[in-house]
Amino acid sequence: MPGVRWEIEAYEFGNCSCTYACPCNFNGRPTNGNCLVVFGFDIVKGHHGNTRLDGLKAVVVARFPGPIHEGHGKLVTIIDEAADEAQRDALLKILTGEDAPPGSLFHVFATTMEKIYRPIVAAVDFDIDVDHRRAKLVVPGHVQAVGEPIVNPVTGLEHHLRIDMPNGLDFKHAEIGRGWAVTEEPIPFDLADTYGRFVHVHMNQDGVVA
Description:
This protein is mainly beta. The chain has one domain. Helix content is 9%, strand content 48%. The chain contains 2 helices and 14 strands; from the N terminus they run βββββααβββββββββ. It has helices at residues 85-95, 105-111, and strands at 6-16, 35-48, 51-52, 57-64, 73-80, 113-116, 120-122, 125-129, 134-139, 143-148, 161-164, 173-183, 189-204, 207-208. Strands 1, 2, 3, 4, 5, 6, 7, 8, 9, 10, 11, 12, 13 and 14 form a 14-stranded mixed beta sheet that branches. The radius of gyration is 16 Å and the shape is globular. The chain starts with 5 loop residues before the first strand and ends with a strand.
């Protein structure tokens, strides 16, 4: 277990290269064989030791040639330029798995990485409405992503879908929608109308908080 006690409550938007709902959630293979993913985090309240993280934002971009558990991943983190040096260090220790609990999203990512790039510090513009499944994530020169609800092609009405994972390692409940994302170097990709998730994250050094 990590030695530093920490806790974050945040809103998260994730967009990956899989089809809606993402077969990886059900122990399936990635839709297109590989895994491309971007996560945005808006931390409402949090701390790492005595370092407060309230109001900060962060982004994680990753690429895997196959399923995540088969490894060989590449990862880059983008830290809010509003964070001071102590806050940047704290966020990196959480997001890159150094202080994340075994089996958590961040720890799993860290153990499957072949390459972790130097972190980027930049302005992060992130708006999210979890309940209505909408998000906008912009890091100029690095990431542009949007999230929307899935729409019924016949009626034009918005679907309201949710995944419940009582024993989930990174969330208990996620609102499901769709997303579009374009990322730049060092991990460039272009996603269009693929799986999106909208989550209220509550996690600490021991894992997901019920």
